[in-house]
Amino acid sequence: MVKKILVLENHRHTLTVLRSLTNAGYDPIVGYHDQIGKKFIQSSRYIKETWLHPKFDEGKKFIEALRVFLKRRNDIAYIFPLGEASSRVLARNYDKIVRFCGILMANPIAIETCINKAMTYKLVCDLNIPFPETSVVQNLTDLNTQIKKLGYPFILKPKTLTLGASFYGKKCIICNSPDEFKKYFPKWPEKYRDLILQKKVSGIRYSCMFTSFKGNIISYFEEKTLRTDTYDGTGNSIDSVSSSPSKQRRDFCELLTRRLDYTGIGCIQFLANEEDGNSYFLEFNPRMDANCALPYFCGVDFPRQAIDVHQYLRNETISLLQYSRDYPVGKRIHWLLGDMSGMLRELKQRKISILQGISWFLKILNTLLKASHHITWSWKDPLPTLVMYKQEFSNIVLKRIGF
């Protein structure tokens, strides 16, 4: 009997995971909670079965539905959460679910620590890993006091931010002056009790993807971000390239994974300052990275490795596989949909000028010519990408930007 894996959350990297799992001999079942997700996943040739479930923010309702679903099945070997929302709800209800099948994620304590930025920064500080000067603020008075202490420029962001969510339309906001602070932060957001205030550090973003077993990193890949879907560089990566591994950044990653006794896949991001040569910790994502298609094209199959380490942890295999440290450097990948959407959004919101928009469009054309791979696209499985484009522009982008 072919074993099945329940995949949770539908994002651009879901397709890479589905293709990897199918090639590994598994039948993926993909969960969804809305019509957009349903149309997207059902268009893939790698999907034979789906599961309609409650939203992840309906925690108790989702877990109960998941338990009922798993009780009816004995063919599901693992659950594979791909985003922060599914990882968080599974971590907080781990004992209720793990009795039915394995969960391809790190231990719940590690998940909770990484999701909570304040806890992560404390851990980073304890390990003497460089990171920007940081404080937690809980109200406007506290915030203004800390701004006087840190000065400008600074970055402001939530302690936790679910994948796909936004903070005033961004992952974080950058304030270079008091005028920008008033513009981007008109009032304290009611939905957030705590915010992270951080001194801005200039640098190039590197994503360090890895597979770890009991804290020891056994597979490692570095990606350098060239451009993001926001003009200020704070958004999601849309143009990136495989980079030579940095011993400094790898050592920092292993300090963190060992302290957390981390087993599974993850991604730790750093900002590399070219002037002093130092790398500054940015964030620890205890999940599959959204750009996992790049290492997959380079021969580093993180979805498959996630299965391998958990099979060994559960004594389902007699040995842990040895993975090659080598991968091609300089391979470039492009997310065209995110690139176009970001440009249109920034233009509509007047965050960039017409000339900056033209410059951005020329960069899109240049990247299209130079990128060796494109996120989501596969000649063997083209429909999901086409459906994604149609959905994004008809149901999200055009309505959001008012065209």
Describe the structure in brief.
By secondary structure, this protein is an alpha/beta fold. It has helices at 14-23, 35-42, 59-71, 84-91, 94-97, 108-115, 117-126, 140-150, 178-184, 247-259, 293-297, 302-313, 336-348, 354-370, 383-401, and strands at 4-8, 27-32, 49-52, 76-81, 102-103, 134-137, 154-158, 173-175, 195-199, 204-213, 216-228, 237-243, 264-272, 279-285, 332-334, 373-374.
Task: Describe what you observe in this structure.
This protein has 15 helices and 16 strands. The protein has helices spanning 14-23, 35-42, 59-71, 84-91, 94-97, 108-115, 117-126, 140-150, 178-184, 247-259, 293-297, 302-313, 336-348, 354-370, 383-401, and strands spanning 4-8, 27-32, 49-52, 76-81, 102-103, 134-137, 154-158, 173-175, 195-199, 204-213, 216-228, 237-243, 264-272, 279-285, 332-334, 373-374. With 403 residues, it is an alpha/beta fold. The model has no long low-confidence stretch (mean pLDDT 89). The chain has a seven-stranded mixed β-sheet with strand order 14-13-10-11-12-15-16. Strands 3-2-1-4-5 form a five-stranded parallel β-sheet. A four-stranded antiparallel β-sheet has the order 6-9-7-8, with helices on both faces.
